[in-house]
Amino acid sequence: MVEVFNINQIRQKFQQLSDIDFRSELYKISVSFIPEMIKRISKGIDKDKGKFKPYSEKPIYVSSRRPGLKSIRPLGKTGRRKFKSGKPLVCRYFPRGYRQFREYMGRRVNADRLIFTGKMLNSIYSTVYGTNSVKITFSRSEEAKKASGQHERYNFWGLTFDGRKKILGKLYKKLTQRMEELFGKQA
Q1: Comparing 57 with 11, which gets the higher pLDDT?
Q2: What is the average pLDDT value for the chain, to the nearest integer?
Q3: % helix / strand / coil in the chain, to the nearest 5?
Q4: What pTM, to 2 d.p., does this model score?
Q5: Cβ distance 74 to 83 under 8 Å?
Q6: What sections of the chain are H helices per DSSP?
Q7: Which residue of 85, 90, 128, 154 has the lowest C-beta tally within 10 Å?
Q8: Please, are residues 169 and 153 in contact by the beta-carbon 8 Å criterion?
Q9: Is the distance from CB of 121 to CB of 41 less than 8 angstroms?
């Protein structure tokens, strides 16, 4: 004889599945992915597992008035520190671009990508968004703005395909555990 469930019992058990707080589970999972994202980004790997482009070598001027850059000594394209009028320069010229600027500031150019002060990556956090969503974002708007510009160049922001698979796998595991609680473990 084969045991068959009463359709009403099955319906009740499936309704009990709705007590799983997927939003809470997704939040916990997303928090666990932040260190993984930061590690990938700092290794110079984009969300599609490609390598970041090298830092720009297009000439730039960097202002010494930018916050955190007081150590920059102004120097013009011609090697002068003052304009012809006698007024002091407030920028420094870097003929080899951002790459040279990073070297000048004592930062590495072949590792620790997208890290200058560390503020942008350190402001990444996970939050519940709306009634059915969780998002990984930035705690400070200036860091979100910075990340937006960097994403255009480096395509770093977002989960990899493998990351998405892991999230779905963890949610599936939670659902399976709850189904086993309700229906019993099937052989």
Answers
A1: 57
A2: 83
A3: 45, 15, 45
A4: 0.68
A5: no
A6: 7-17, 22-42, 97-104, 119-122, 141-154, 161-183
A7: 85
A8: no
A9: yes
